[in-house]
Each structure stands twice: as structure tokens, then as C-alpha cells.
Design brief:
The complex is a heterodimer of chains A (122) and B (211). With 122 residues, chain A is of the alpha+beta class. Chain A has helices at 3-8, 38-45, 50-59, 77-89, and strands at 23-31, 90-98, 105-109, 112-113. Chain A has one domain (3-113): N-terminal domain of TfIIb, CATH 2.20.25.10. Chain B has a single domain (3-9, 35-205), classed as 3-Layer(aba) Sandwich (Rossmann fold). Classes of the chains: A alpha+beta (122), B alpha/beta (211). The complex binds S-adenosylmethionine. Chain B: It comes from Zingiber officinale.
Amino acid sequence: MRLLTHNMLSSNVKGVVDGFPLRLEAEKWVEKEVELNVDFLRHIFHKIEWKALAGAARAVGYGELPDEADAAMLDAEDFLRRFHHALLEIHVEEGALVCPDTGRRFPINKGIPNMLLNEDEI
Amino acid sequence: MKLKQLEGLLGTLQQFSHPKIELEQYPTGPHIASRLLYTAENTYGDISGKIVADFGCGCGTLGLASALLDAEQVIGIDIDPQSLEVASENAVDLELEMDFMQCDINNLRWRDHLVHTVVMNPPFGTRRKGSDIEFLAKALKVASCAVYSLHKTTTRDFIKKIAVRDFNARTAEVLCELRYDVPQLYKFHKKKEVDIAVDLWRFVPNANQAL
Ligand SMILES: C[S@@+](CC[C@H](N)C(=O)[O-])C[C@H]1O[C@@H](n2cnc3c(N)ncnc32)[C@H](O)[C@@H]1O
């Protein structure tokens, strides 16, 4: 699971209204290089919840994202590289996603988060 | 990438070894899958550089085809862990990146419109009534650009009506009618192959106006 995927995901437990962002607990992750696509980054920036991304990046030991960001920063090559790296190049292999409201843990095994709910959570 | 090349690569993928009847696990063959994605990319520009979700990804055919056509990020969702395992092996074999998630589409909760395009071959709802419609409703909720999907031709009028009236689709268009060979995966199929008429749809969600 990459951090872009984490940024889309809300907790789906019954009764949870906000459920975003899921807290990331990462035990193992890998990095794989992806070609930088400036147009994509500029476009997607406006849809990204920045605090959630920066928080998730810290959970995988990447502290290079500023706490806050605005569109003007997209002109700086250095910022684009960091944004790109956090969003697309880090794969969480083992760990968990934790619902911010209920504390329910969703395990991540072999890179795949398991978001299946029990009967009483639907 | 040429169409023939795409079809050839999709033909090398592993498919369900023990398909689960209740989940309607039959793969989209390389012929249909390659044409679906090729049209989405070359006629409409809905794949390359986009975030694509593959709903009910099974062994990953449609999502991996999107990755081959340069989607920026692909996410495959299935309820079945065995299929997801095969799908991630397929991704490794083709040296492609694709994210996966185990989830029931009905309980999927994503922020709206972050995904650009949804590609899917949903269960036709023959085992669990209405599952094709549940997939469509969810796809039109999360997608910002387009949804590509296969539905039985017998449901055409119903799909059109419900997509526009209830699921906020701006347009719902049948791109072509296909013959779908559902192979004899299941004992209750008497003939070797069951040939059914299926429509390839393209839906445009209302969110697309804002883009
Ligand atoms: C017709 S198969 C298509 C498989 C694959 N997309 C392909 O094109 O080859 C339908 C897939 O949907 C999955 N599925 C069925 N019900 C589901 C649900 N409620 N949530 C998520 N996936 C589901 C099945 O496990 C199966 O892999």
C-alpha cells in the first residue's frame, strides 16, 4: 500500500462519521523508484489531504514533508521530489491502519490492507 | 503499446485456480480486457497518468492492463484474499506496480473523486441479486472521470435508467455489445461454454463537470 492509497481511505466501521485519516502503524516498508510526473503532481495536489500525507510519511520514517503546504510550493523542484517520493515511492508491507474514532485495527500483510468488517461492524 | 501486445501480455496472467461460485469468479479474457482498456485510453484518455481503481479485481487483469497503459497509480479491490495473492504475483511477473486492498465493495469508504477512473467486471448478480448494481453505485460515487463496466445486455434499459436517475451519472453509453464466454467453471453449467451477451458501458459521473 502506497501513501496515495492511504490518503483516499476512511474507516468504514459502522457509526463512524469522519474516520479520516486512519493512523498508520508501519513495521516494514520498501521504497521503489517511480518516474516523476509533474503534471500529475500539480493536479493531484489539490485533492490530497496534506496533514494526513505528512503524518503517514512520518510513520515510515520520512520527515521531509513540511507540516503545511500550498500550491505555490509546486514551483519548487525540491518540494515536488519530496511530494512525489512520499506519495508514490514508499510501499508499506507490514503494519496496520487504525481507525481514529474506534481504535479498530486493520492489519496490513504482504502490502495488502484488510478492510473486511465483522458482522457487527457493518 | 499496441493492442495485440497488450492482449498477448494479458494472456500470460494466472487466473483463478479454484473459482468461488458465490463470488462469481470468472476472468475477463484477454480479448475483451485488452479492448476495454485500449478504448478507454485511446478514445477517451481515461487511463494514462490517471488514478485507476479495479473493483472486484480478481487476479488483476483489468488493473494490470491499466498499469501497462501507463496509469499513474492502480488500486485493485477484492473481497477474496486468494485472488489478491494471485493478482500481486501477476503484478510481480509483469514488473508492474499496483496497490491492493481486501474489502467488500459495499463497505468501501473512500474520499469521493480522488480516483479518476474505475474499471470493473462486476459479478452479474446471478448469485447475489443486485451485486452488479451495488458495484456501479459505488464506482460512480468515487470516480471523477469515468467508469467502465460490463453488464448483461438483458439489463440494458434498467442500467441506463438507474445510473442517470439514482447514481448521478451525467452520461451512460453502451460502447459495444460483446459475446462473453463464461467458461465452464461450475458444475451447474451444462454446456462447455456459456455464451452470454454483455454490454461494455462507459459512464461519466457528474463530478466530471467540475474538472
Ligand atoms: C467476474 S469476476 C471479475 C474478476 C476480474 N476483475 C477480471 O476481470 O478478470 C468478479 C470479482 O469480484 C469479486 N467480488 C465479488 N463480490 C465482491 C464484493 N462484494 N466486494 C469485492 N469483490 C467482490 C470476486 O471475488 C471476483 O474476483
